[in-house]
Write a sequence for this structure.
């Protein structure tokens, strides 16, 4: 039997499976969370050891302020709780948090002064909305490291973590997923363009800012269409996600 928050659980389970299709999985070390209600320290989280492609709504844990699940057989993992609990607490729109080691975005974090350049239409939706953490301190064993990461993100919706991966947040599951999908597409296009050895042709700052504003119009509507399409595909091909 699926616990409470059924549709939110199904949305998040769908996003796990959707991310698996563009290599969002990093072994069993990536994690997504969704705040439940108004308490920032009460959220759904995937159990440590779950492949994204096998996610089911009923598998998602409800975590309390101490990082404990009602089911002691499931473990969230120290890094997941230390990072997600602090971002949920400090970011004004972190209802949903998606942290991945997806390959193209992570490749940019490995470059000296690696940045997502405003050179593709896919990248322009992120203009002015990306933070960069250029300090790497190893695994997030301590809450203090999660706090440092959360403060590095500020109020941006995307954080690039040096040598590590990315964090994306959104006020809804749909918006967070839409941003994550297009972030990896933008990074992929940039890496492939850079591989030619020719200089990137950047969009002017004025046009980039204008286009970013265009993308923000009706963001929830377009993001919801994207997530609805994903769920429709999963309902047909992988219906177990909703169990």
């Amino acid at each position: 039997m699926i616990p409470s928050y059924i549709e939110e659980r199904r949305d998040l389970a769908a996003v796990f499976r959707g991310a698996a299709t563009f290599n969002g999985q990093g072994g069993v070390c990536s994690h997504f969370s969704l705040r439940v209600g108004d308490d920032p320290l009460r959220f759904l989280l995937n159990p440590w050891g779950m492949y994204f492609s096998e996610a089911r709504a009923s598998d998602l844990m409800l975590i309390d302020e101490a990082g404990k699940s009602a089911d002691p057989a499931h473990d969230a993992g120290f890094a997941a709780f230390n990072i997600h609990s602090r971002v949920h607490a400090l970011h004004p729109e972190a209802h949903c948090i998606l942290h991945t080691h997806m390959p193209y975005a992570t490749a940019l974090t490995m470059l000296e002064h690696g940045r997502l350049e405003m050179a593709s239409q896919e990248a322009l939706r992120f203009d002015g909305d990306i933070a960069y953490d250029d300090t790497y301190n190893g695994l997030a064993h301590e809450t203090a490291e999660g706090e440092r990461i959360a403060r590095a993100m500020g109020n941006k919706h995307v954080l690039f973590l040096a040598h590590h991966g990315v964090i994306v947040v959104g006020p809804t599951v749909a918006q967070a997923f839409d941003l994550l999908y297009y972030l990896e597409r933008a990074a992929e296009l940039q890496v492939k363009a850079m591989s030619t050895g020719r200089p990137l042709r950047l969009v002017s700052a004025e046009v980039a800012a204008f286009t970013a504003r265009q993308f923000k119009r009706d963001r929830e509507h377009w993001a919801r269409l994207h997530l609805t399409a994903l769920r429709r595909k999963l309902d047909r091909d992988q219906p177990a996600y909703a169990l």
Observations:
- The domain at 6-242 is CATH 3.40.225.10 (L-fuculose-1-phosphate Aldolase).
- The chain has a mean pLDDT of 93.
- The beta strands are 31-35, 43-45, 61-63, 96-100, 130-133, 158-161, 165-170.
